[in-house]
Fold:
Amino acid sequence: MTEHVLQMEDVTKTFGSGRTEVRALKKTSLEVSRGEVIAIIGPSGSGKSTLLTIAGGLQGPTEGEVQIAGERITELGEKDRSKVRLEHVGFILQSSNLVPFLTVSDQLKLLDQVKKGNMPKDERDGLLEELGITKLTGKYPNDLSGGERQRVAIAKALYSNPSLLLADEPTASLDSDRAFEVMKLLKSAAVTKNAATIVVTHDNRLTDYVDKVYKMVDGVLHLQGEGGSERLGESRTDFLEKGGNEDGI
Ligand SMILES: Nc1ncnc2c1ncn2[C@@H]1O[C@H](COP(=O)(O)OP(=O)(O)O)[C@@H](O)[C@H]1O
Ligand SMILES: [Mg+2]
Structure:
């Protein structure tokens, strides 16, 4: 199998047509390897969420090809695509992907019913502990704060041991300590589970943990730096501070 968990080649996405046409993603190629964590930053509306949802097969591109774990998902029908998603992809999306009528622990149990290879119990308990949500397992999403929901969504994504982890602003409603914890978790999941990870963020607290930083501007992805956090150094931090604030998917 290829080293690249994700391969996107000449992918574009256009919404609407004529006067309402929006070219959300211009010709984009991106590869992410096992164990690699990349960050994508950029202003609101620049196409980050579009890229992430196409990378995970939640929506198809207008042009181009996407491979996840060696499967050409752009050539698959919806049923086979959802199989690939279930098997390989963990999403941490801004609109949290929690099921409103299931408790936290039932959200995880549901995954056990549809998929093998999830974390064993000890590891799951350790994950919940690290995220500080052990006491919340009997609660429903609506009884949780925004930050708690976000941490549960992170637990749910990591629980399934995905080979491709896609996180859209995963720390937006967390304080600094929690944000660091979460980023460490994502990094350690990438390294210990050999997962490829993409984190969309404008949060410069997080980029110390990533291998490459890309900036998205008007649907075009630019590589800003690579080679590990140390070597990215000052200039990257300066640049990240200009990343701007943004709201959502
Ligand atoms: N389903 C959609 N229909 C029409 N336009 C969309 C849709 N999704 C995104 N867009 C547009 O594509 C552009 C990029 O959006 P998005 O990927 O959400 O940006 P970001 O995540 O960087 O804020 C924006 O102009 C947005 O309005
Ligand atoms: Mg977005």
